[in-house]
């Protein structure tokens, strides 16, 4: 996923160190993670694979999820994440500090698109051309995503495209009534 986020050209991996990498100042409040991140850049997939095998225990530790999130965001780059979000407010967490759909897509596909449909949609339901196409999932994901919410009307349900419904591996992240889960076969 990191390699895919870097568009198969390279990626960044963050590991948590013991010592801060920059001094504390009044513009930043220490969180005991960000100031201790060490960045590693990779231009060859084989080098990344060897590195990850050697340091996988960092991602199995309590801070592993945040390390993976930082690594994904830095591999995709902030300008590309903003581009993926189209004209939306560029944020990966909701105002309630919940995971946004764009963040789920970034972690599953390497792109921070807000949409769950396949491909690009150029026209509205009325047949009118959109000012900007709505870009969804462009290729089959390694891990799938399924969504259902009881409050959605049957004729206006969130549509998840087949690229997420039928992943390469039989593993799905689910979001049912606002709660995340995992299914696997």
Automatic annotation (TrEMBL):
Q: In this record, what's one Pfam family?
A: MINDY-3_4_CD
Q: Name one GO biological process term.
A: proteolysis
Q: What InterPro entries does UniProt report for this protein, alphabetically?
A: MINDY-3/4_CD (IPR025257), MINY3/4 (IPR039785)
Q: Which reaction does this enzyme catalyse, per its entry?
A: Thiol-dependent hydrolysis of ester, thioester, amide, peptide and isopeptide bonds formed by the C-terminal Gly of ubiquitin (a 76-residue protein attached to proteins as an intracellular targeting signal)
What top-level class of enzyme does the UniProt entry assign? hydrolase
The alphabetical list of record keywords is: Hydrolase, Protease, Thiol protease, Ubl conjugation pathway
Its Enzyme Commission number?
3.4.19.12
Please state every residue range assigned to the domain named Deubiquitinating enzyme MINDY-3/4 conserved.
Answer: 3-185
Highest taxon listed in the record's lineage: Eukaryota
For this protein, the parts annotated as crossing the membrane are none
The protein's GO terms of the molecular function aspect are: cysteine-type deubiquitinase activity; K48-linked deubiquitinase activity
Assigned protein family = Belongs to the MINDY deubiquitinase family. FAM188 subfamily.
What's its job?
Answer: Hydrolase that can remove 'Lys-48'-linked conjugated ubiquitin from proteins.
Task: Indicate what this protein is called per its UniProt record.
Answer: Ubiquitin carboxyl-terminal hydrolase MINDY
């Amino acid at each position: 996923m990191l390699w895919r986020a870097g568009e198969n050209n390279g990626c960044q991996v963050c590991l948590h160190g013991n010592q801060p990498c920059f001094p504390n100042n009044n513009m930043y409040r220490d969180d005991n993670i960000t100031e201790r991140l060490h960045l590693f850049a990779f231009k060859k997939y084989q080098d990344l694979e060897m590195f990850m095998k050697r340091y996988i225990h960092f991602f199995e530790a309590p801070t592993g999820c945040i390390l993976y999130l930082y690594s994904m965001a830095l591999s995709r780059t902030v300008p590309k994440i903003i581009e993926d979000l189209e004209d939306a407010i560029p944020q990966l967490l909701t105002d309630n500090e919940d995971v946004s759909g764009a963040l789920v897509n970034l972690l599953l596909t390497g792109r921070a698109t807000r949409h769950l449909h396949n491909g690009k949609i150029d026209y509205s339901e009325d047949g009118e051309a959109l000012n900007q196409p709505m870009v969804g999932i462009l290729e089959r994901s390694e891990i799938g995503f399924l969504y259902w919410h009881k409050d959605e009307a049957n004729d206006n349900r969130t549509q998840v495209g087949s690229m997420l419904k039928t992943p390469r591996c039989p593993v799905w992240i689910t979001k049912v009534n606002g709660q995340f889960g995992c299914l696997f076969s």
